[in-house]
Amino acid sequence: MRRPRLLYVPFWATYVFLYAPIAVLVVMSFNSGDSPYSFEGLSLKWYGELAGNAEIGKGLVNTLVVAAGSTVLSTVLGTLLAVGMARHSRSKVLDAIGVLPAVLPDLVLAIGLLVFYASIRMTLGLHSVLLAHTVFGMAFVAAVVRTRLAHADTSLEEASRDLGAGPVTTFFRITLPQLAPGIAAGALLAFTLSVDEFVIAFFTAAPTEPTLPIVIYSMVRFGVTPEINALATLLLAVSFTVVIVAQRMTRLTESLS
Amino acid sequence: MTRSTVSGATAAPRSRRSRAPGRTAAGRSAVGRLVFLGPGLAYLIVLLLVPLALVLSYTIFRRGRFGGVVYEATGENFTRLLDPLYLDVIVGSLKLASIATVIALLVGYPTAYLIAQLPRKWKTIALVAIVLPFWTNFLVRIYAWIVLLSGPGLVNSTLGDLGLGPFEFLYNQGTIVTGLVYSYLPLMVLPLYAAIEKLDPQLREASANLGARPARTFVSVTLPLTLPGVVTGCLFVFVPSFGNFIIPELLGGGRSIMVGNLIRDQFLKARDWPFGSTLALALLAVLVVLLLLQAWSARRA
Q1: Cβ of B250 and A220 within 8 Å?
Q2: CA dist., res. A121 & res. B46, Å (int)
Q3: Any chain B CB within 8 A of the CB of A116?
């Protein structure tokens, strides 16, 4: 197939555009100077400053608590929902409700939950963010598991039932293991989305218990500090590792099946 | 694993029914429905549908004097929506989101086209490289642009070395559009890639053999066949751009606000929840119209 030469211009421009700002952040995070703009020399001092920042530490702990909790809840509810939608329902309305959290603008979900929490007089805190993140986390888990279900071999379940296993045994010993890679991928997705989520957390968190994105937001709003460069570099390293590991895992499971 | 799912799905309940004469199929599937669908559905009803219904109902009520809601039906929120003060913001947001979408399409299409032509190994790498920035923290990526573009920032200091500037890059509509394109470009490239990848290369060859120049082949064959991908990509960029409030605030400097900022302010600053809800409904209405257009174009394709 022909690859027109001219296309390489926008192609490389895209990658430069996507990566140049990121590269600048990474380089500046190792800056020894105090200015966030001019590079003076190599040092790890901003990483040291970062480690001593109590606000960021608290935000990180809060984020991990919320992400872990909502991932567990999302994975259980989303998996059940996926099996239910694929095997026990043909309702189009149900399908629509299932994907709604994924397509709804985050701002709309955020104000909806804020209004809801206020109307039942629930005090805001980490639990309110956790419950909120589960709404979209569950939808993404359900979507991923459903894709896996579409490729699952139902004859194994039939065989299990024919051999006298009850529905509960069949579900736990046949259906779940078959779905395991999909469930793991869905859980990973729910966790990553929760860690990164800002808008909904911003509306549903208590001011005293900010998540990490909320801490970053308030730091960025009050100006540029090199500490954020160091934090950004660490976050980039974590996301890149997760994506590449996930990529490897999918390739591994694909080659196995 | 090659067995078709359709036949598998229909075969399963039949064989169960024959084996369980004691219980009816309907009864069994009612239990299954309750166990599998019950928890998730209940969760989504309480924490998704009820909140959305609340927001919807607030649009016809009045704000209380100290925030809160007075349950007294009124149409004033909707008439206020037509106030030039707010209408300008909504139209302005539509404009900025549209510009960002068009730029993302113009940059994204050639990129997706070229990725689709790459050898398999490079294709995967190129695609992962498109998605990677998307998986990094959104605020961090916006912050990177502040470092690049601010008064003493890197772009200005580089230009300064060349004897140019300094320029005020930050805090205008151009920066907002840059931020939007930067944040959502991956969402444009992926559906475009999927559409272009599916394209049968023989169609293009046939067009060329029949004497069409490459430009003609692109306009009459490639573009129409990849139109569903174009529409999906545009939607993926437009939707999060239109309701955005972070990019206009951090890169727009608050001078040119978008409808997202307006909604945020109604809820967190002005505490006028009914009017904030009405703005959110307007935002949703625009998006629903776009989704219907997409469904219509997908059916036509």
Answers
A1: yes
A2: 15
A3: yes
CATH number for the region B81-300 comes to 1.10.3720.10
Task: Enumerate the domain spans of chain B.
Answer: 81-300
SS (H, E, C) B168-207: CCCCCHHHHHHHHHHHHHHHHHHHHHHHHHHCCHHHHHHH
Q: How far is it, in rounded angstroms, from Cα B26 to Cα A88?
A: 10
Q: B276–A111: do the CB atoms touch at under 8 Å?
A: yes
Query: What are the angstrom distances between the C-alpha of B273 and each of A65, A126, A178, B211, B246?
Result: 30, 23, 47, 62, 20
Interface with chain A: mutation pick from B120, B136, B199, B264, highest number of A CBs within 10 Å: B136
| Helix or strand run (H / E) with residue B63 | strand B62-63
CB contact under 8 Å between A105 and B243, yes or no, is: yes
**Helix or strand or coil: residue A208?**
coil
Of all residues in chain B, the one with the smallest CA distance to A158 is B12
Tell me which residue has tokens 């999909």.
A182
Average pLDDT over residues A201-224: 88
Q: Tell me: the pLDDT tens digits for A56-80?
A: 889 999 999 999 999 999 999 999 9
Beta-carbon separation of A36 and B267 below 8 A: no
pLDDT-based confidence at residue A110 (cuts at 50, 70, 90): very high
Asked if residue A50 lies in contact with residue A230, where contact means CB atoms within 8 angstroms, the answer is yes
Q: Is A256 on the interface with B (CB under 8 A)?
A: no
- Chain B residues closer than 8 Å to A38 by CB: 157
Q: Any idea which fold A56-223 has? A: MetI-like fold (1.10.3720)
d(CA B84, CA B91): 10
DSSP percent split of chain B into helix, strand, coil, nearest 5? 75, 0, 20
Radius of gyration of chain B (CA): 26
A92 touches chain B (CB under 8 A): no
Handedness of CA A251, A257, B3, B5 (dihedral sign): negative
CA dist list (Å): B2 to A153, A183, B8, B9, B201: 8, 21, 11, 14, 27
| Partners of residue A42 on adjacent β-strands | A31
Quote the ipTM score.
Answer: 0.83
B69-70 and B62-63 as β-strands: parallel, antiparallel, unpaired? antiparallel
- The closest alpha carbon to B58, from B44, B78, B42, belongs to B78
Smallest Cβ–Cβ distance between A220 and the set B32, B39, B146 belongs to B146
Distances (CA, A) of A247 to A147, A162, A193, A243, B127: 17, 37, 17, 6, 11
